[in-house]
């Protein structure tokens, strides 16, 4: 019985185990998603581990890296040169030098205006130079008939030559410089008219820029400005008015008066209005060391003025060379007289409707030579006197317009406090008023500054004024 029971129990256990294995097999067969889920988790874990290992490797590599310094580079260049490194470096230096030479030559071409070197034809240039001969500089002394000209070559003599086919008879004038071609195979002829030879000191007297002074900048000289415009400005701008009437406008104008009354300022305003070349000559510049130099400079001045379309010659301080002639002056006085006589001769050579007008200014009209101031040479004499009350107010407003000032300044009061003062002194008053404002560290000039400057300039410097002698003389 017992044996039967044991057999039954073993059979039950075997049946239970087989049932469990069947259930597990069914469960594994029924859930296929679980089989797929397991390898995906393993792949993600492997990827995360690989990324972490890579990050660790890169961090370790960065920690082990070190930047190369200049010294390390120098060591590498010194001890790691190949067998051809020196030759290569020499070739590189030669290439750099060639580049520099090319740049220099290209700059020369652009600066000098030459054509590029690839366009040069030296053989044809040499052949052309052999055909053309150098020109000699000569002076045409006389114009003869049949297009013949008498010329004088320095240190050779006089010749009668013809005119080149490329020139017209009007291109050559008497007393002009010309270039002549001479040779055994070719005939002598005038080939090129040359500009006149002028002294560099004379060229420096020409003012290149037109003065920026207008008639509005000249105060208290209304009548004088009208007279100057009739003599100088209108003949240059409207010459047909005078030719229609058959009259010659005044050729020269003398401006005289006390110093600082606006003579030079008015001359600059005329030059600005007419757009003419303004040539300013100070009398002392014509007094030279050697005999004949002053007269030659005067000739060059008038010759330069004739070449301009319109020119105004302004002789300032003409009394320094235009004084009355005396018997006993010595060598220096004779030279000054020669300079003055050359001015007189040049003034006679001008026509009334010419393109050159002459202005002269002086503080001492009584010392001028009568030959210089006679009608025909100096046709109009204009006096610039001391400004009156209305003129002084106008001058104050002109000079104060450039100042940063108060609006309630009484210019008429200031003009009454400055009797017998010139325009230059009034300008000095305005400048000194600005200096008072600068001393007080102010940005605006007030009336008190003007009053203080009047007491300083007009009353304080009165003993240095030279206008009293002039007024007594007149």
TrEMBL record:
Chain residue ranges for the region called Disordered: 1-69
Protein's name according to its UniProt entry: AAA+ ATPase domain-containing protein
Residue ranges, compositional bias (Polar residues): 11-33
Bias-annotated ranges (Basic and acidic residues): 42-69
One Pfam family in the UniProt entry: OB_PRS7
Nucleotide-binding is among the record's keywords: yes
Places the protein is found: Cytoplasm
Keywords: ATP-binding, Cytoplasm, Nucleotide-binding, Proteasome
């Amino acid at each position: 019985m017992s044996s039967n029971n044991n057999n039954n129990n073993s059979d039950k256990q075997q049946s239970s185990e087989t049932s469990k294995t069947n259930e597990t097999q069914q469960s594994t067969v029924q859930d296929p998603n679980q089989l797929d889920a397991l390898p995906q988790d393993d792949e993600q874990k492997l990827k995360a581990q690989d990324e972490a290992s890579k990050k660790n490797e890169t961090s370790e590599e960065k920690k082990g890296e070190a930047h190369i310094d200049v010294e390390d580079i120098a060591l590498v260049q010194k001890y790691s040169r190949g067998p051809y490194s020196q030759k290569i470096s020499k070739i590189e230096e030669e290439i750099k030098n060639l580049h520099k030479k090319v740049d220099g030559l290209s700059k020369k071409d652009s600066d000098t205006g030459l054509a590029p070197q690839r366009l040069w034809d030296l053989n044809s240039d040499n052949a052309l130079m052999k055909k053309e001969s150098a020109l000699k500089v000569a002076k045409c002394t006389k114009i003869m008939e049949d297009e013949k000209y008498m010329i004088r070559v320095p240190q050779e003599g006089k010749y009668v030559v013809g005119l080149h086919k490329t020139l017209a008879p009007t291109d050559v004038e008497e007393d002009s410089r010309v270039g002549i071609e001479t040779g055994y195979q070719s005939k002598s002829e005038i080939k090129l008219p040359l500009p006149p030879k002028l002294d560099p000191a004379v060229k420096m007297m020409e003012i290149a820029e037109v003065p920026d002074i207008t008639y509005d900048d000249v105060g208290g000289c209304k009548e004088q400005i009208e007279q100057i415009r009739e003599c100088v400005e209108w003949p240059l701008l409207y010459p047909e008015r005078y030719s229609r009437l058959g009259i010659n406008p005044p050729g020269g104008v003398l401006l005289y008066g006390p110093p600082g009354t606006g003579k030079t300022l008015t001359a600059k305003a005329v030059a600005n209005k007419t757009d003419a070349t303004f040539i300013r000559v100070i009398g002392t510049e014509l007094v030279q060391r050697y005999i004949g130099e002053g007269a030659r400079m005067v000739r060059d001045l008038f010759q330069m003025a004739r070449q301009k379309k319109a020119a105004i010659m302004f002789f300032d301080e003409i009394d320094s060379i235009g004084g009355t002639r005396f018997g006993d002056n010595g060598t220096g006085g004779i030279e000054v007289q020669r300079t003055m006589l050359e001015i007189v001769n040049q003034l006679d050579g001008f026509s009334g409707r010419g393109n050159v007008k002459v202005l002269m200014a002086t503080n001492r009209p009584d010392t001028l030579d009568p030959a210089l101031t006679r009608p025909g040479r100096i046709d109009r004499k204009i006096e610039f006197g001391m400004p009156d009350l209305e003129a002084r107010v106008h001058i104050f407003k002109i000079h104060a317009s450039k100042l940063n000032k108060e609006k309630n300044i009484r210019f008429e009061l200031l003009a009454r406090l400055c009797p017998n003062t010139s325009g230059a002194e009034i300008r000095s008053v305005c400048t000194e008023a600005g200096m008072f404002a600068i001393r007080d560290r102010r940005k605006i000039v007030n009336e008190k500054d003007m009053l203080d400057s009047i007491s300083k300039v007009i009353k304080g410097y009165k003993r240095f004024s030279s206008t009293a002698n002039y007024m007594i003389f007149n």
